[in-house]
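retry 2 of 3: previous attempt timed out while embedding copper (II) ion. Reduced batch size to 1 and resubmitted. Inputs unchanged:
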Amino acid sequence: MSHLRERAWRPVVAVLLLCAVTAACAPAAAPQQRPVSAAATAPSPTEDASTHEAHEATASAGSEQEAEAAPVALRRGERRTTIAVPSAYTPSAPNGEGTDDYRCFLLDPELPQDAWLTGTDIRPGNPDVVHHVILYKVDAALLDQARAADRASDGPGWTCFGGMGLEGELDKLDDAAWLGAWAPGGRETVSRDGYGVGLDTGTRIVMQVHYNLLAGVAPDRSAARIRWVPQDAPAGSDIEAVHTVLLPAPVELPCRPGRDSGPLCSHDASVADAKARFGEAAGQTANLLHLLCGTEVTPTDTTTCDRVLPRDMTILGAAGHMHLLGRWITVVANPGTPREQQLLDVPIWNFDDQAATPIEPLRLRAGDTVQVTCHHDQEMRDLLPALQDAEEKYVVWGEGTTDEMCLGILQAVFDD
Ligand SMILES: [Cu+2]
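retry 2 succeeded.
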């Protein structure tokens, strides 16, 4: 893909990656996240590994929340910091259309030095209305813009369909700014030993929260606990940087025969509807994906995208992301060649389990192809209570609960 095309592509990363820095998901601390009170999620002083156990013993005594989601013990050199949305936010449809609100909040982890992020524990304040949460790192080039967006909006945060809602935030998919994510069933995620995501001192974090308005409009104040290791500490010198590579593919799922007379049963009508709900830029993504993938708008239940890797890298883990109509997803390296290798195979998609799968580290070279393929199925509409009242439509890539995505996610260590 040319640099120009990469620029034209205004990406999309409403994605759920539960084992953010890959491989070793923390042991299940609780079957489900539970509401956490504002007091429990308020920013607290940074802990370090030596004080951690005493603190935990105190905090967990008689506290239902702590008992439900006890944190995983800190590893060598790790510290834990809590970041939280400054005040409660009550979601609403930003364009007056649709049933989804994406809100971004600018948070300061107050890192005193360069750090490796080695885990995230995202705590939705009100899980009834929070559909997913994604954490992004904000580098210095975007910070002024993020502050301006925050100031220009009433209440905490700003509207941010398709990422952080900032210009030039993600001109590339090959090294995305993701730090971690939460979706229903999510729990603390911890990096594989020896790996982390680099954060410079002064780095801010954007927390993107997707509110599903079908579930109501109650106020929310979400938070996250991050674990990190100072880069110049002895433990920090043993850590290698992990990056996120995103592999999106278009979605062009037609209405079923006999149910195709609705007003949204065409590609054009469905894209226009997405623009009305999410704005011109995010709504245009369904079409831009064809530019990225070199594909055409053709109704089908199975879509695919080939991407050529721009650099040498070692893949450590893979995850997939679709919404409620997804049935299966695969990611394959170098398909149709002697070096073909499956990176991800989810034969039965479960929206409530989007955890990454660790893989035997696989070295890929610049010029190698990675291919994501997704299968979606309109029949799922008849089976899922969440879509019971949603009218059948031609489904394209979009940010909403009733839209779809097809996304492969790779965790990689770069050679350069
Ligand atoms: Cu999505």
